């Protein structure tokens, strides 16, 4: 059984989930390989797609640089000479999650790895998978592991209800522009046409929430949808005594530590602004410190009770960070089955979050963490205060045991292997 996992990059949350599945499958004697458009890390049996694309001209390079600069400076006037897609992206709010198009210059079916595989397991393939050429040329069964909503939307990676925060600390409802609606409808029709004649497709969603969203989507409502939670190596993420992790990360030993983790702290969907404002509500607690991990272009003032630990790539160091914390807070406004929540629970560290998406499936209120009563600064502050006043209600051992039971990597692998076998037996 030869499985080819396809992912755009080898960094980020979706890439980590893809890598973990790939490695545990290999440990179960499955011939698993990974095809990537961009490669920075040295995963076993991972390969860079050998593109036949022509090299970019100087003009194209300058256009791409102009677009990046416009986004960074929040200048929403379309730079001259950009494609229609680039113009659309340049005027779309930078506070929204990614928007990706269903077309690319890559034909994955040209790869030798594709030709050798029995099953193609797509993952996060934005700006890599070209819907039209792939589904026209593909002759292999496909399993598509969803890491967000993009595969079945017209471009959005999450259909975001909110954009911004009002003066009362509650989310502001987003107004979807006419241009966004037109572009999304056009892209969705293109996707529907591309897969209309393809039947050998199975969808896998890590959360029940995303599974239900896929089932009722226009694109995937006629395909089998399976719920298989992500798994994690319990020997990397495990409970440790707080003393060493805090020394390692230079975190005060006499403080209660609230932890926030995201690839980008500035990502509006991840909700750091809610946590920051909630922390101001408990500013009278001088024994509490907020530690933030992730990339950011906004300076975090450490003197205000916030300790910026920067971006951490090493998994063992991340395990130490969860162990250094008293609680991990994930104030996402919408999310699938975040790796960060699984990582924290595996370390026995309770999790506090908003009642959204797959997060409500992961947090059992007052058992392994707390769910805020609503999406608001006050709701989050109330949940954090409850935790700080009742730390003994949460058992590190119990949280760890349940996490190992629910998110065991071998259990995940067994479920995928069963699915792969059932597909090949057809």
From TrEMBL:
This protein's record includes keyword Nucleotide-binding: no
Top class in the EC scheme: transferase
The enzyme's E.C. designation: 2.4.-.-
Keyword Oxidoreductase: no
Record Gene3D superfamilies: Glycogen Phosphorylase B
GO MF term (any one): glycosyltransferase activity
Database matches in Pfam families: Glyco_trans_1_4
Keywords recorded for this protein, A-Z: Glycosyltransferase, Transferase
PANTHER family: GLYCOSYL TRANSFERASE GROUP 1, GLYCOSYLTRANSFERASE
Annotated protein name in UniProt: Glycosyltransferase
